Amino acid sequence: MEKLNCILLVDDDMVNNYLNEKLLRSIEISTNIRITQNGEEALLYLARHGSPYDYNYPDLILLDYNMPKMQGNEFMELFNQINSCQRHRSRIIVLAAFMNDNIKEQLTVLGVEEFIEKPLTKEKLEEALHKIKI
């Protein structure tokens, strides 16, 4: 598996964030793992680290779909308004306990590349990364 410069976890559940960060560190996919608790925090994080040379801009965003303040589709709509050079630096995978085909289709149109049913596992992550060629 290719080592990534930075991964951004976007999830309102601190337990999920803890477990997902622990998993990502155990498989050594990146040493630079950042966590935000909602879409608004994630967009602010991306704005602060938008320089082309900023080591903290994520190669991969693992986005929880169902969050307070901003659902995954709302995040994606705003994410798509970011400068295109920055936007294309990040690949996005949505994490969800359940997701119907209509929502998946909408998110795919908005730029989500893959979906993982919670909980995140090494096998599910490897399969998703293989599909999107990371």
Short structural description:
By secondary structure, this protein is an alpha/beta fold. Helices cover 41% and strands 17% of the residues.
Could you describe the 3D structure shown?
It is built from six helices and five strands; from the N terminus they run βαβαβααβαβα. The chain is of the alpha/beta class and 134 residues long.
Number of helices: 6
Q: What is the N-to-C succession of helices and strands?
A: EHEHEHHEHEH
How would a crystallographer describe the biggest sheet?
5 strands, parallel
Number of strands: 5
- Class per helix and strand makeup: alpha/beta
Unreliable spans are none
Radius of gyration: 13 Å
Outline, from the CA principal axes?
Answer: globular
Return the average pLDDT rounded to an integer. Answer: 94
Task: Give the helix proportion (percent range).
Answer: 40-55%
| Beta-strand fraction estimate | 15-25%
Distance between the termini: 8 Å
Widest sheet: strand ordering: 2-1-3-4-5
Properties at a glance:
134 residues, 6 helices, alpha/beta, five-stranded parallel β-sheet, single chain
